[in-house]
Amino acid sequence: MPDPLRIVxxxxxxxxxxxxxxxxxxxxxxxxxxxxxxxxxxxxxERSPTxxxxxxxxxxxxxxxxxxxxxxxxxxxxxxxxxxxIVVVAFKILxxxxxxxxxxxxxxxxxxxxPKYRGAAPIHHAILHGESETGVTIFMLDRGIDTGGILLRExxxxxQDETTGDVYERLRHxxxxxxxxxxxxxxxxxxxxxxxxxxLATSAPKIHPDDGWLDLTQTATALRNRIRAxxxxxxxxxxxxxxKLRILGAETDPSPHLTADPLQWQTGSGWLRPTLxxxxxxxxxxxxxxxxxxxxxxxxxxxxxxx
Length: 307
What we know:
The protein is α/β, with parallel strands linked by helices.
């Protein structure tokens, strides 16, 4: 059996936690965990650790907290650990001096089927574009953004009712299994990176809150995909009498219901009916609850027009 690898793990959000746990349980040695610093979170403003730091503490792993990977002290600390491999899951871009530090190199788990959806928001964009499948890619890091050679890809169907929150939760466990298989392959010398096909590359740039404003001149299907893609965050929305109305679920139909319904909107093609909504400052409600309790002019403003 090949020797176990000395691994430096880098990550911060909950997406990275199953991978860290899988590596900690494996025969390989996680010699350090690099994550972001504690931050003030929630309404109380109390400082709390990243999800990865909390998990590392529970696992008894040493932690390095940092806002930047460019500090000389970080490089010196990691070099002293003599890692064979750096494993990155949902963290910062590695500077060149860290890319070349480990004996084998550095790998990343990306929540898309590369080269599709390179960038910060691959799950959002896969749903936004109506994809029927998605997955996780484990690849060698280089100086580009998600451009390195692919070690393995794990495909999974993308349900047409799934939201970004649903897929995020599922793929973080897919990523853990895929990373462990890739690490075992690198340790055994059986994993070889395959170059990405640049002709198939697409981008998945960061999502901003204003991107969720629904353009009601688009098709009902496209709008429903946007609602799914922006749930739970940052949210898809219209303005209702000047206030933001978040849409957390919706149905489509080629024609309207027979009865007049202020929560039934004609789009560029077909009709959109929200099923779950939240008016700013209020709790989440079903469309029926909201419709029966709302008092106002029912002026709906989409991104392009009033209806």
